[in-house]
Amino acid sequence: MLDAQHVTVRRGAIAALRDVSCALAPGQWLMVAGPNGAGKSTLIGAISRAVPYAGSVYLNGQNIATLRPRELARAVGVLAQRPSTGYAFTVEEVVRLGRYAYTTGPLSPPDAQGETAVAEAIDMTGIASLLGRGIHTLSGGELQRVFLAQVFAQNPQLLLLDEPTNHLDLAYQKQTFDLITQWLRAPGRAALCAAHDLSLALAYGTHALLLRAGEAVAQGPVHQALAPALLRDVYGMDVQGWMRGLLERW
Amino acid sequence: MRSAREGFRPRAYALFAGVTLLALALCISAGSVGVPLTDTLHILWRALCGLPQQQGATDPAIILAVRLPRVLCVALSGAALALGGGAMQGLLRNPLADGATLGVASGASLGAVIAIAFGITLPGLPMAGETIMAMLFAFLSLLAVLGLAYRLDTSLATHTIILIGVVYSMFVSSALTLVLALAPEKIRQITFWTMGSLAAGNYPDALMLALALLIFGGALMLRARELNAFAIGEDTARHIGVDVRRVKLLVLVAVSALIGVCVSVGGTISFVGLVIPHMARMLAGPNHRRLLPACAFGGAVFLMFADLAARTILSPLELPIGVVTSLVGATLFVYIFYTTGRKGHA
Description:
The complex is a heterodimer of chains A (250) and B (346). Chain A has 250 residues and is of the alpha/beta class.
């Protein structure tokens, strides 16, 4: 369903991403791995059209550059690394905003599936008890679940996740990744995740794309693309040995 | 799950309108010559129905020719400024953003002053030169300040933008002084813009303000959902499908137009766009479906009472209205600055 071809993103003189191609079929979860500055977030930025890019990105055969913002949002949802909280909006208001793409304008007719989609998203993420709370009063984990509910309500086909659990406690990390696995079970859905934690990538991903300094080093099924020899090369250390060494302390 | 009503109920609107009309009547009847409230209402009623006023009385002239147009201008300016401030604070996710703090109001007054000093007019429309120049300069000022701030900090949510706005205001005030030096014979007219006064408000001014409020204020209210998304974060807005560039441009144009018209009618009246949205947010919450209407009504009432204070406290001496709003506004600015600096904004 996703077919990104020769994507290049320039930041001034340097290429943050150089000629990267990747493809994704329904049901797949692609983990994008690589050291800091490898271009993981930049790839997500390009596919969500947040940063200008060269190359082409097709979604179900349509070039995303030709989509209107609302059409793009119905196809691609994004969960940011650290969702922001400014003013004291309620949880319910934030989740409902996920349905924005299904309205046509200020005087749009009511969104027919809206109530069901919002209710399902709230149910799935288990935030019913938080609905009336202000988002500025939530913990990092609760906040992440609220924005996950927003993007579930948005009901995209492709979910982009930018290191979604980086700053979260272990319990929330597991919960978030389990929720996304559950979300992926419905037909016609796929996920692409910038992954910092390689163990999580191996545990939850079906496929992986390994980046180094903006270039693709390997891609394919997760255990193949994140094979120990490749990781050693890209990270400049014995990643597998280090991870196993850490586990032995338990 | 409860229904998705986010705006006010009609009952609430009726209440707001009632309070605003009551404030209007009070502010018209009070002043250097006090006219009892019942007489004021009588005079207004007769005027509305097209009935003849009482023979020989001076009150109808005071009420209808002087006070009513002035108070109408005050109320409409207050509504427009507060609405513009509220929309701006949502768009930039910065509770300190306002025409005054961003330098937009000073930019607009520079535009108006240039129009006066160099006699820029549109044929057939006496005030149009000033108004158009004020709107244009408001928009250009906004672009300049935001453009500069964006280069330093792409989130625009921090104090950087306010700092740039202040520096920009200083720059504009020296440009104003320069214009004064070049056109010394217009000095009286020009100082009026920098102090802010609605004492000379007349019916054509009120009509222009009402039209601007209807068109540009209406455009902002129709973008309440988009503003909500921006107020949570520009990334969020983009991710849920908001046409970020278009909405931003639309809001910036509408806000500059509102501020430009207000400045061309009443000069720089600072901090209304800061004080009122802040109070409205405390009472009605940050959702722009409620916040923007609350700002409009709150701004109208606040500025009417500020104007009343300006003309009665040291009566018969009349204070510039901008002095009153600045005294209140600057204090609140420090308070918000202090609280947001400590724990992100509420």
